[in-house]
Amino acid sequence: MICIREEVSAPKIQSGEDALKYWWTKIAPMPWCDQEREVCVVLCLNTRYRVVGFALVSLGTLNESIAHPRDVFAPAIALNAFAVLLLHNHPSGDPSPGRADKELTQRLSDAAELLQIRFLDHVIVGNEENYFAFAINGPLAY
Fold it and tell me: Which listed residue, 5, 57, 98, 115, has the most CB atoms within 10 A of its CB?
């Protein structure tokens, strides 16, 4: 888990595009981020949707990554986050969600409601410009 001090200059995440930019500027350069494997990361946000920290949830294989709600929300609870956003990549470059992505998003949405932590979105990163944001294509919203 990487904690970022709450600062006015901390990145504000208000859209899937903001999340994609954060992925390429902050997450992709991390030494553990292997673009040839699925990498799943949770962004923890304050009430102004500014990033207060992020955590690696899982390193997967070429075509799958295992993420459990407990692994997604543990950093959010530790950082006293108001909201979370899940990001993961598809090494193929095609950000289209699979059945497992849809099921995970629903489980996270249910868990967030129980924990009273806002689950803003699940963004799948394809290549530098392509992404899929469940908030645009489903019930989640910023």
Answer: 57
Closest CA to 115 of 63, 64, 80: 80
What span, in angstroms and rounded, lies between the C-alpha atoms of 8 and 109? 28
Give the tokens for residue 79. Answer: 């950082």
Q: Which amino acid is at 14?
A: Q
List, for residues 92-104, the tens digit of each pLDDT value: 999 999 999 999 9
For the whole model, what pTM was predicted?
0.89
Q: Render the chain in DSSP notation, one character per residue.
A: -EE----TTSPB--SHHHHHHHIIIIITTSTT--TTS-EEEEEEE-TT-BEEEEEEEEE--SS-----HHHHHHHHHHTT-SEEEEEEE-TTS-----HHHHHHHHHHHHHHHHHT-EEEEEEEE-SSS-EEEHHHHSS---
In this predicted model, what pLDDT tens digit does every residue of 120-132 receive, in sequence order? 999 999 988 899 9
Percent of the chain with pLDDT over 90: 76
